[in-house]
Each structure stands twice: as structure tokens, then as C-alpha cells.
């Protein structure tokens, strides 16, 4: 494989080492690997008329815009050491040892290139791709790079940016939370064990945590933009601290998940607590409630006490009774489907109930709060 190093630079805002490279299209597809799409599960393949023209242009030999890649965090140290050496050959060898690289910007172009290759098209050896490769070891700076600097690209919503972030940090999440398994939605199927979540739902959960709302795609576009702009004006350190807070809460969520898994299975027809904890409405509303209520240290302490109390009560009861899901299920079934957006009403109920649960430090049973807060 031939990878030519064209030069290096620092991103002065974050002091991120950046490497500029060039390679043939065939070699580029080896750089990102056969499973490049797994890093962008939520940025599904787009159907856009301009891509048809792009495909024809590539066949004609057009030069593509620069594609942005990132070295995996767990492999970045060797690349950084090579970068500091100032030797391009050393940098190239370190990059090749760190393959595959993750796609930050250029997924749709890569799909097209792969399609052409699979169809039997032969790319000329001198039809090259230019690459910007970022070697970022600092979690906070990677968050800043993906969320803030991509915010000016109108086609990419904050949700997509956070999905890319979560996918890029999949290894970090699984390393920080023992036993955690994040799987593509299509591989998730029915949830049968604790600590196994669909990756797109955890992306949504982090988005809800960031904007303090379970409504990650508001119908009111102005409200959506204002909500996102308030986040984008944060300092770099705030993004990092926020993500670490998310991980800490996620750890407690997994402990509750473990406690539920140890309980006897529910009877047929009853709402499974394991399924409920993995449901997107539940996850989004729960993490939004944590972020919205936990505005200071005293409140965050209440949240921790409430979640510890909930876990202990589940272990003591050896059932999901402390979650009050029988009451929850009856309330949801009572929503007038013709007049109510059931998903919205469900998320709102879960959000309000958990905020009240946190306020009382978990001393009031969730079953009682479900009934009290139902409209």
C-alpha cells in the first residue's frame, strides 16, 4: 500500500496534530477498511441526485474534495510520536499500523467509490484522493472538533454530529463501562441481556443529555436551532466534562440494568423491564431528566442517591416492582391515541417522573409518581 505524506500541521485551536496525505483510490479503500460504514451507522446512505452526477464524474477521473479521517483513540499515541519525529516515513509507517482509520467527513463519497470498485471499475493509479488525518488523543478536543467545527455544515445536524461522535468513541464507552456492548440497531433484535444497547439509541441518549430534552428532533425548527446553539457556545472543557458526566450516569444506568436482569422473568403479556430500559423513549427521557435536573452539585448528589436507592430496592424485592411498570403501562394505554402523540406523551411522562424521583432522592416509589404525574 502506498500512502504519500504531503505535510503536517497543528490545529492551533486544540493543538491537534494533523497529517495531510495522498493515495490512490484503491489504497484509500484499504485505509478505511471493508467495514467503514460501521463508524457512521446513523448517517445512512443518502439518496441524492447530485451523487449520481458525482459517480459519473469519478468515472471520468474527477479529483474529489479532501476526505477527513481520524486515528482511533486507542492507537493514536504511536502516530503522535511519529508526528513529533518530523520524519514522513515514520509518520506513514505509524499510520499504516493504525489502520483502519475512521471517517469523519466523506462517508457518501466512500460509498460511491466502493460501489464503483465492486462493479468492476478500474481506477487509474494516478487518480488520487487527498486526506486530512487527525491524531487527537484528548477526548474533549475530539468532541469539540466533531460537534462545533462541523456545526457550520448545514446538511449535518447536531444529531448526526453526536452520532458520529458516539460511534468514534464506541471503544471509549466500552472500555469505561465493563461488560457494555454497543451493537448496530439491525443486530440488536429483542433485548435479552443487560448492558447490551443499540448504538444509535446511546447516540440519541447523549444528544438528549446535551440539550436537556428528550425531543431531539423538534418540529419547531427555530426552537431546535436555539436549543443547539446554546450548546455550541460552550467552552471546549465543558464538552469533555459533559461527556464524562454522561459516562458516570450511564454506569449507574447499567447497574440498574444488572439488577433487573437478576430478577425473575415477567409473565407473557407484561412489560419487560429489560426491554423498557433499552427503549429509546425511556433512554432519551431518562438522560434528559438527569441533565435538566442536575444543574448543581447538590442536585447531582440527589440523583446519585436516588439511583442507588432504586438499584437497591430492585435487588431487595427481586422484581421490577420498584420501577412501577404496571402503573406505567396502564397510564400509557390510557392515552387517547386520536388526540395525542403517544411517543411525545410517553417521553414527557418519563421525563417528569424521573425529575420528581430525583428531587425526592428516590424515597417515593416510582409507581406512586407515575400515577401522580399522569395528566
Give descriptors for this structure.
375 residues; alpha/beta; 2 domains; 5-stranded mixed sheet; 7 strands
Q: How far is it from the N-terminal to the C-terminal residue, by CA? A: 63 Å
Percent of residues in beta strands? 5-15%
- Walk across the major sheet and give the strand order: 1-2-5-3-4
Strand/helix succession: EEHHEHHEHEHHHEHEHHHHHHHHH
Query: What is the overall silhouette?
Result: elongated
Largest sheet: 5 strands, mixed
What does this entry show, briefly?
Helix content is 56%, strand content 10%. The chain is built from 18 helices and seven strands.
Describe this structure in words.
The structure is a single chain. The chain has 18 helices and 7 strands. The protein is α/β, with parallel strands linked by helices and 375 residues long. It folds into 2 domains: 4-137; 141-373, no CATH class. The longest helix is centred in the middle third of the chain and has 26 residues, at 236-261. It is elongated and about 70 Å long.
Secondary structure layout plus pairing:
Blueprint (H helix, E strand, L loop, with lengths): L3 E8 L4 E9 H8 L16 H11 L7 E4 L5 H10 L2 H10 L4 E4 L1 H12 L9 E7 L4 H11 L8 H11 L1 H7 L4 E3 L1 H4 L7 E3 H13 L9 H12 L3 H26 L11 H5 L2 H14 L3 H21 L7 H9 L8 H18 L6 H8 L2
Parallel strand pairs: 3-5, 6-7
Antiparallel strand pairs: 1-2, 2-5, 3-4
Amino acid at each position: 500500500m502506498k500512502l504519500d505524506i504531503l505535510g503536517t500541521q497543528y490545529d492551533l485551536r486544540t493543538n491537534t496534530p494533523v497529517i495531510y496525505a495522498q493515495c490512490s483510490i484503491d489504497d484509500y479503500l484499504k485505509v478505511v477498511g471493508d467495514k467503514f460504514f460501521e463508524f457512521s451507522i446513523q448517517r445512512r446512505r443518502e439518496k441524492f441526485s447530485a451523487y449520481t452526477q458525482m459517480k459519473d464524474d469519478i468515472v471520468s477521473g474527477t479529483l474529489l474534495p479532501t476526505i477527513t479521517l481520524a486515528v482511533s483513540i486507542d492507537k493514536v499515541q504511536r502516530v503522535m510520536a511519529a508526528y513529533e519525529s518530523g520524519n514522513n516515513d515514520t509518520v506513514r509507517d505509524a499510520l499504516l499500523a493504525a489502520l483502519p482509520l475512521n471517517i469523519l467527513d466523506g462517508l457518501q463519497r466512500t460509498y460511491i467509490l466502493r460501489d464503483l470498485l465492486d462493479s468492476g471499475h478500474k481506477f487509474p493509479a494516478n487518480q488520487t484522493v487527498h486526506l486530512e488525518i487527525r491524531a487527537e488523543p484528548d477526548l474533549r478536543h475530539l468532541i469539540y472538533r466533531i460537534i462545533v467545527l462541523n456545526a457550520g455544515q448545514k446538511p449535518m445536524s447536531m444529531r448526526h454530529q453526536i452520532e458520529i461522535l458516539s460511534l468514534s468513541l464506541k471503544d471509549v464507552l466500552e472500555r469505561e463501562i465493563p461488560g457494555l456492548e454497543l451493537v448496530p440497531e439491525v443486530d440488536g433484535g429483542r433485548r435479552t441481556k443487560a448492558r447490551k444497547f443499540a448504538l444509535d439509541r446511546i447516540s440519541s441518549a447523549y444528544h438528549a443529555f446535551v440539550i436537556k430534552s428528550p425531543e431531539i428532533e423538534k418540529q419547531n425548527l427555530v426552537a431546535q436551532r436555539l436549543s443547539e446553539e446554546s450548546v455550541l457556545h460552550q467552552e471546549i472543557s465543558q464538552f469533555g466534562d459533559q461527556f464524562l458526566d454522561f459516562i458516570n450516569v450511564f454506569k449507574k444506568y447499567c447497574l440498574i440494568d444488572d439488577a433487573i436482569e437478576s430478577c425473575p422473568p415477567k409473565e407473557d403479556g407484561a412489560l419487560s423491564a429489560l426491554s423498557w430500559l433499552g427503549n429509546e423513549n425511556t433512554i432519551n427521557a431518562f438522560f434528559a431528566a438527569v441533565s435538566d435536573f442536575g444543574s448543581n452539585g447538590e442536585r447531582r448528589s440527589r440523583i446519585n442517591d436516588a439511583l442507588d436507592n432504586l438499584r437497591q430496592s430492585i435487588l431487595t424485592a427481586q422484581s421490577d416492582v420498584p420501577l412501577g411498570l404496571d402503573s406505567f403501562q396502564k397510564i400509557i394505554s390510557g392515552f387517547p391515541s386520536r388526540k395525542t402523540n403517544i411517543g411525545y406523551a410517553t417521553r414527557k411522562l418519563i421525563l417528569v417522573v424521573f425529575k420528581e424521583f430525583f428531587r425526592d432522592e428516590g424515597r417515593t416509589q416510582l409507581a406512586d409518581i407515575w400515577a401522580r404525574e399522569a395528566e
